[in-house]
Amino acid sequence: MKTIFRAASLDKESLYHKGIHRGEVVGAVDITKNNQTIATVNVLSTEDVTFTMPKKDTTMPEVKDSNVKVISVGIGAIILFGAILYVVLRRNTKGMKSEGK
């Protein structure tokens, strides 16, 4: 014995406007045995259900304050590393020039 659920065909527009009310048929269950349908049982809604249309988000996503902090810390670290590298390389080249004289 097998049971097969079949959803009722519902119009999406009517779902958004009037919803599903208690006692409405939302589908059917077919009970089959040996590939023959023995019975069909209607599935009813047990409570009222309303749906709302999804809102389309047309605004730009906000840049969070934490993202700005992370980016500014990263840029600061790169500049600091570059300055240290410049000073170290400058000292090394000056030392090489004085040794050569």
Please write the string of helix (H) and strand (E) elements.
EHEEH
Averaged pLDDT: 83
Strand order of the largest sheet: 1-2-3
* Amino-to-carboxy terminus distance: 101 Å
- Main beta-sheet annotation: 3 strands, antiparallel
Helix content: 40-55%
DSSP summary: helix tally: 2
In short:
By secondary structure, the chain is an alpha+beta fold.
Q: Please, could you describe this protein's structure?
A:
The longest helix has 36 residues, at 65-100. This protein is of the alpha+beta class and 101 residues long. It is elongated, with a radius of gyration of 36 Å. The model has no long low-confidence stretch (mean pLDDT 83). The chain has two domains: 2-44, no CATH class; 62-101. It is 42% helix and 24% strand. The chain has helices spanning 12-17, 65-100, and strands at 2-7, 25-33, 36-44. A three-stranded antiparallel beta sheet has the order 1-2-3, with no helix packed on it. The protein contains two helices and three strands. It starts with a strand and ends with a helix. The chain crosses the membrane at residues 70-89. Keywords: Membrane, Transmembrane, Transmembrane helix.
